[in-house]
Amino acid sequence: MKKLLGLLLFLVLSSSLQAQSKEEKEVAAAVESLKKAMLDANRSSLENIAATELTYGHSNGLIEDKAAFVEALASGKADFKSINLTEQTIKLAGNTALVRHKLTGEVVNSGQPGNVNLGVLLVWQKQQGQWKLLARQAFKL
């Protein structure tokens, strides 16, 4: 019985050590806010979450700045019908966060429906107390 209690205590302590920090939770929430803004095509939300210096790289090599990123989604040129994020990792380095995940979903680009299956690297920077998307690069899986 003592061994079982010891094992249970070890598992509880191990899982609590691997729990996300407050900052990691804030970054994860920012990723969810980005996902929601992209699905909703909400111009204000997209502008708020993106850093002024945003560089947004697509898997086809297209690079957009903040204005082009926001316009493509808000205008409906790129219309996400679904976004699923899996295998997400978050690494903090000062006021910078590196997020990697797999993104699958359905999108309509310039009227053409399609499916996406991408690996994504997001770079977030804490600016004036808020996590802002500074860079994004996607690649085909």
What is the radius of gyration computed over CA atoms, rounded to a whole number of angstroms?
Answer: 18 Å
Model regions low in confidence, pLDDT < 50 over at least 5 residues = 4-17
Shape: globular
CATH architecture: Roll
Give me the secondary-structure category.
alpha+beta
Briefly note the CATH topology name. Nuclear Transport Factor 2, Chain: A
Number of helices, counting only DSSP H or I runs of 4 residues or more:
4
Which class in CATH terms? Alpha Beta
The helix-strand sequence is HHHEEHEEEE
Amount of helix: 25-40%
Mean pLDDT, to the nearest integer, reads 90
Cα separation of the termini = 48 Å
Strand order of the largest sheet: 2-1-6-5-4-3
Main sheet: strands, sense, barrel: 6 strands, mixed
Tally of DSSP β-strands: 6
Strand content: over 45%
Model description:
The protein is an alpha+beta fold. The protein has one domain: Nuclear Transport Factor 2, Chain: A. 36% of the residues lie in helices and 48% in strands. The protein contains four helices and six strands; from the N terminus they run H-H-H-E-E-H-E-E-E-E. A six-stranded mixed sheet has the order 2-1-6-5-4-3. The model is unreliable at 4-17 (pLDDT under 50). Keywords: Signal. It comes from Rhodocytophaga aerolata. Pfam families: DUF4440 (PF14534). This is Nuclear transport factor 2 family protein. InterPro entries: DUF4440, NTF2-like_dom_sf.
